[in-house]
From TrEMBL:
Species this protein is from: Halorubrum californiense DSM 19288
Keyword field: Membrane, Transmembrane, Transmembrane helix
Region (Disordered): 1-22
Name of the protein in question: Uncharacterized protein
Residue spans crossing the bilayer: 38-54, 60-78
Superkingdom of the source species: Archaea
Amino acid sequence: MVGLRNATMSSPSASPAADRDASNVRSVVARHRRAERAVSWTLALLVVAAFLSATAVLSFWSGVAVGTVLVVALRAPVYRRRGSTRLRADASPAAVVREFGSSTPPNLAFQWGIADEVRSVDGGSAPPDSDDGSASGTAATYEFSYLFGLRTVELEISVDVTEGDAVDEVAPVGRSAPDDPPVATVEIEGTANGRPWGSYAVAVRGGADGGSVVDVELEPTRRFGLRRLPQGWVGDRYYPDALAAQGYEVVERTVSLTR
């Protein structure tokens, strides 16, 4: 098992919803996308280099064998990701619940931020946030196209919100908010082309300072190939920045890799 811990980030803004379409959010997502592509291309070039080296030193078919072994080893599903993140926001629990209960949850910024299209269940355009006070959850489809539009992937997101105590309740000053019962929990399930993609459990609590404390648990639902490791490292690097741009401060974060 491998552990990763990130330090506290900069202070969040008072209203997460106000920053959802801000240029700094798009900037973080764009930087993450460029870095992710860079490591993917680097990995592909290393495989090609291994193939050419084996061909030059041994023979063409030896190079083919080496390349095939490397591709299979990199693509074979061998590990799962499990993670836990604690966030802090100056916004009220009600506002935070609406954010995570929307069709574009803050923790999925790298997905809805680069999607070619975000559609709600009824086929309408899914808004980045909601101000109607609803906390029942929603569902959406993120559509991505690759290879100049020759390949399309649809990521279907189902978001369910369960309220606990009054959503606007906050913990009294001096009381440890993370130990209090959550005012609401949000379950986020994702499937890509009908296959399990990811699952998140989010607990929202009132903060002692009048803000909110959010615990996000990443539940392992699928295995990844070794080729996904560099992409995971890039995501871990930019994840706190993407959340900070939306008004959330990463207080503590751990990520584990298991079989």
